[in-house]
Structure to design on (378 residues):
């Protein structure tokens, strides 16, 4: 579920989000309720193991609005007992009352966007909070009953060094209680953002390539010291605390998106809502665009591209059960090429054989995975 509103647009953000007044936010919530109920006739039969409320900044909405949206989902869809219900939140937009109400409404997992523990870096990013405000928000979330919390951090920021980034990682890992999940992303300067304008003007001092690689490698090194295991290219968790919603995405489980720009994959059909807020407010059920029935070859390519993001890799038996053919038969040349380059390897366990990215392969993941989307490039 996409909440496209924020207090202020961050300099690096290219997401479909922007500030909006309370009246617009309420109209959008009403439109979401209409879409949720309107899609139920077609999709209400599916079981729902996870829900993800993302943005933008979902916590910019009032607790009552989040309660209404979750109530609409619960009344129209088969949400399973113990479902993981995640909500993203900005540390500068929450207090005890709102967090307690989110928890009571059914939110079981909170994702707090920190990005950095240094106030000067936060200011340069355009974030609305300080490290002290984040720390207070984290303590408040724990007091409100949240035990499943993710923290977002970023590397490759302007002026960032291995020492400053390492301090951010350690400050996060040493929070009490320690968060069970940490998402660590590299900054990408996207077109159309304030950062891209600063970069073009020579006003954005980013770490050089060697420093950026050192920051990337530092993430796994530091977090492993604190008991976090890397289970996906950019995600680390305590054992058994992986984000179930994201794992479902990387293993191509069905998902249904609500809101402007929201993407869906249901029974190998991809579709997406349009990105016009006004059009969505007027007719939320009339926004489906870019519908595509995936061919078997496209399904296989996605299966490999997404599955290799997981450090566990892609199971040969799982592939065969899904597509009724052998993984090595379909991708023999691609697999042999990247094994020879030291980027892929096979791992055997009691569950079977798994093809996975090596440590070096994780560094060059996009290069490797692109070959599975288009084997002819190999």
């Amino acid at each position: 579920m996409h909440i496209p509103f924020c207090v202020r647009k961050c300099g690096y953000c290219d997401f479909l989000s922007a500030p909006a007044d309370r009246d617009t936010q309420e109209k959008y919530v009403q439109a979401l309720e209409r879409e949720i109920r309107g899609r139920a006739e077609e999709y209400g039969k599916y079981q729902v193991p996870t829900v993800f409320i993302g943005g933008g900044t979902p916590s910019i909405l009032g607790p009552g609005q989040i309660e209404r949206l979750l109530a609409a989902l619960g009344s129209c869809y088969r949400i399973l007992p113990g479902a993981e219900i995640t909500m993203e939140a900005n540390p500068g937009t929450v207090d005890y009352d709102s967090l307690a109400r989110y928890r009571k409404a059914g939110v079981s997992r909170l994702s707090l966007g920190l990005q950095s523990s240094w106030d000067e870096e936060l200011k340069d990013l355009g974030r609305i909070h300080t490290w002290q405000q984040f720390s207070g928000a984290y303590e408040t979330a724990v007091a409100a009953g949240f035990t499943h919390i993710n923290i977002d951090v970023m590397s490759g920021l302007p002026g960032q060094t291995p020492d400053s980034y390492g301090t951010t990682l350690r400050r996060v890992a040493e929070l009490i209680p320690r968060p069970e999940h940490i998402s660590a992303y590299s900054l990408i300067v996207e077109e159309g953002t304030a950062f891209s304008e600063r970069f073009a003007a020579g006003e954005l001092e980013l770490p050089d390539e060697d420093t950026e690689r050192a920051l990337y490698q530092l993430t796994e090194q530091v977090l492993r010291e604190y008991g976090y295991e890397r289970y996906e290219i950019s995600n680390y968790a305590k054992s058994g605390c992986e984000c179930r919603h994201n794992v479902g995405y990387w293993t191509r489980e069905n998902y249904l998106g609500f809101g402007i720009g929201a993407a869906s994959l249901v029974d190998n059909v991809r579709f997406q809502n349009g990105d016009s807020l006004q059009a969505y407010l007027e007719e939320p059920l009339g926004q489906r665009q870019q519908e595509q029935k995936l061919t078997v070859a496209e399904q296989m390519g996605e299966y490999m591209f997404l599955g290799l993001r997981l450090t566990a890799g892609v199971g040969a038996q799982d592939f065969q059960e899904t597509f009724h053919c052998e993984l090595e038969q379909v991708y023999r040349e691609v697999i042999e090429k990247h094994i020879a380059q030291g980027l892929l390897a096979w791992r055997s366990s009691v569950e079977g054989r798994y093809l996975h990215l090596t440590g070096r392969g994780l560094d060059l993941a996009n290069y490797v995975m692109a070959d599975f989307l288009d084997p002819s490039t190999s």
Notes: The first strand starts at residue 2 and ends at 3. The mean pLDDT is 96.
